[in-house]
Specification:
It contains 11 helices and 11 strands. Helix 6 packs parallel to helix 10 (269-292). Helix 2 (58-65) links the parallel strand 2 and strand 3 (69-74). The longest helix is centred in the C-terminal third of the chain and has 24 residues, at 269-292. With 319 residues, the chain is an alpha/beta fold. The chain has a domain at 4-182. The strands form 2 sheets. The protein has a 9-stranded mixed beta sheet with strand order 7-6-5-4-3-2-1-8-9. A two-stranded antiparallel sheet has the order 10-11.
């Protein structure tokens, strides 16, 4: 069931996932926002506002301040007050982190290619002691090859001693690609189209911001309501490969599914392989943490597997 309404406040609102925003400003109108707030309240949804770098007009800010919501803000936003109170801060380039003043209780999203991540791994390691949570968003998943997958695996294992060190000092830092799997007992996916939908500045609903920014089909508007074709396809129990998978930290991105495989409920080889490399590295992190405290995460078990793509595993069993 729906829980969240995501509202990019402008066409150049920061991206917090794999998609890229537009250059044009095209700010949402106050009238549209008022209707959206009323619709969300009637539907009992929490609104997540996504901000551009530029300041938002006072009348829009006042409306936002009057309701319960979450703020997703670019790290170089002009408003210092907005940054200080943000629920999620998005970093779109590594250069902006030099000298950046982190707030330890905040969550940070780092959008990066794998190549850039490898180049900046020292900076990533330094972040572990400065923040509460880091979400790594890999922008080039559709293009990752076997060599890149090996490089990613090596990087994740290189981070394990640093995370263990933080735990030793009592700082249980979270980094989505390694620590999320340790605390989950079921899939914790993005669930766009099932638990969340997006209202774009043009007044139309979309499965998620990526569908809007890539000019894909809308799923209704505020006047007529939602019209999601084949809504069951967005649910985990209608995703045959994913529903029996235990890479529970995987975002199961429906936009990437549609982009690469053409099917909302079918993941690509690349997305599955990345998720299982993270899952396997999480297992090694778990074993390393238990070396410093045998009772730590005692209820967690991550079995050994011999595949990265569940589809390959299914095919091998058949033949």
């Amino acid at each position: 069931m729906l829980k969240y309404l995501i509202i990019p406040l402008a066409d150049n609102s920061v991206s917090f996932c794999q998609y890229n925003s537009k250059q044009a400003h095209n700010l949402v109108t106050v009238g549209l926002l008022e209707k959206a707030v009323l619709w969300a309240m009637k539907s009992n949804l929490t609104i997540q506002f996504v901000y551009p770098r530029e300041p938002i007009p006072a009348n829009i800010s006042d409306l936002i301040s009057s309701i319960n919501h979450a703020d997703i803000v670019p790290c170089d936003a002009d408003s210092r007050n907005l940054l200080a109170d943000a629920d999620i801060v998005v970093v779109e380039n590594w250069e902006s982190l030099n000298g950046y003043e982190f707030i330890k209780g905040q969550s940070y999203v780092v959008r990066t290619s794998l190549t850039e991540l490898l180049v900046n791994k020292k900076l990533l390691k330094a972040l572990l002691s400065k923040v509460f949570r880091i979400n790594i968003v890999l922008l080039d998943i559709p293009y990752i090859n076997e060599t890149a997958l090996k490089d990613y695996d090596d990087l994740l294992h290189e981070l394990i001693p640093d995370i263990v060190s933080e735990y030793t000092y009592g700082h249980q830092v979270q980094i989505n690609v390694l620590t999320d799997r340790l605390v989950l007992n079921r899939m914790n996916n993005c669930n766009a189209g099932y638990e969340s939908v997006t209202l774009a500045p043009n007044g139309n609903f979309y499965v998620c911001p990526a569908f809007y920014f890539n000019a894909m089909e809308s799923i209704g508007d505020l006047e007529k309501g939602l019209d999601i074709k084949n809504p069951l396809l967005y649910k985990l129990n209608h995703a045959p490969i994913c529903r029996s998978c235990d890479a529970w930290q995987c975002k199961r991105c429906v936009w990437l599914n549609k982009k690469i495989t053409g099917e909302i409920n079918t993941p690509s080889h690349e997305q599955c392989s990345v998720a299982h490399i993270e899952r396997n590295a999480s297992r090694d992190l778990l074993l390393a943490l238990r070396e410093i405290d045998s009772e730590l995460l005692s209820q967690v078990e991550i079995p050994v597997i011999d595949y990265l793509d569940p589809f390959d595993n299914i095919i091998n069993k058949i033949y």
